[in-house]
Design a protein that fits this description.
Elements (H helix, E strand, L loop, with lengths): L1 E4 L1 H17 L1 H17 L8 E2 L8 E6 L2 E8 L2 E8 L7
Parallel strand pairs: 1-5
Antiparallel strand pairs: 2-3, 3-4, 4-5
Helix pairs in contact: 1-2
Length: about 90
């Protein structure tokens, strides 16, 4: 499967990395590196992740990473990563 990362996800991720970097640039780089590594694991079996708590759709799934929820949609041979949430009611 191909993984497509949406602008909405990139924007929220970059904001969080900048926030972490204020305290520790090294931790921020590691956070981003580890998250991207986890995103690549989605391609092998996207349905292994839990059904999203934010959407009533079996093709939208949540990956939990260090207290954050990464929301992605499965469309045939493409996985679209679009949500990056922490302590919110909606990934928008």
């Amino acid at each position: 499967m191909k993984i497509v990362i949406k602008e909405s996800f990139i924007h929220k991720l970059e904001s969080q990395v900048e926030f972490i970097a204020m305290d520790s640039p090294r931790r921020a780089r590691k956070f981003k590196h580890d998250l991207i590594k986890n995103l690549k694991s989605i391609a092998q079996n996207p349905y292994q992740f839990r059904k999203s708590v934010y959407f009533d759709n079996d093709n939208i799934r949540d990956l939990i990473f260090k207290g954050y929820t990464i929301v992605f949609r499965i469309n045939e041979n493409v996985v679209e990563v679009f949500g990056f949430v922490k302590y919110q009611n909606s990934p928008s």
